[in-house]
Amino acid sequence: MRILTAAFLFLAPLAAQTPAQPGAASTAPAKSPHILASQAMFNGAKNNILRSVDKVPEELWSFQPTPEVRTFAQLFAHVADGQYEFCGMASEGKIVNKDIEKTATTKAAILEALKAAFAYCDAAYAGMTDASSVEMVDFFGRKMPRLGAMNYNVSHTMEHYGNLVTYMRLKKIVPPTSRQ
What we know:
By secondary structure, this protein is mainly alpha-helical. The chain has helices spanning about 1-15, 35-55, 70-90, 100-105, 105-125, 130-135, 145-170; strands at about 135-140, 140-145. The chain has a two-stranded antiparallel sheet.
């Protein structure tokens, strides 16, 4: 069942790009499978994070397994910051710094920031073309295609979703990607 769910998450955006009727005129050029696959993975990561926010009660947002790691709140805010950093490189050619981790502290404020950050990345995908996806941008001292920066964002987001899964398990919360 999980394989079918995963396949749907990755293939649904591809189907959405297919014209309803053969020969039907489209107002926008179809995106390449590379962009669509990246966007589908991003949507899965975004969904995991937003569903995690829903599962973690506000009284646990200050939970920190050890003093050396982030709290739930800091992790969620860090993920929001990452969206601007990596999608900023892809869409604007530079890091966009919002300092959400330093400024937002409540569940409501961080959720609002996460939604805005994910919308920023959604807009980056919407504006990406096959030609722009392969343009090279500065990426922490090296060159990377714009789509590579978007893929790195997915990897970074899922890395921290993994942290959140561990935190949730420590607090007896079933993570969104697990079923009982």
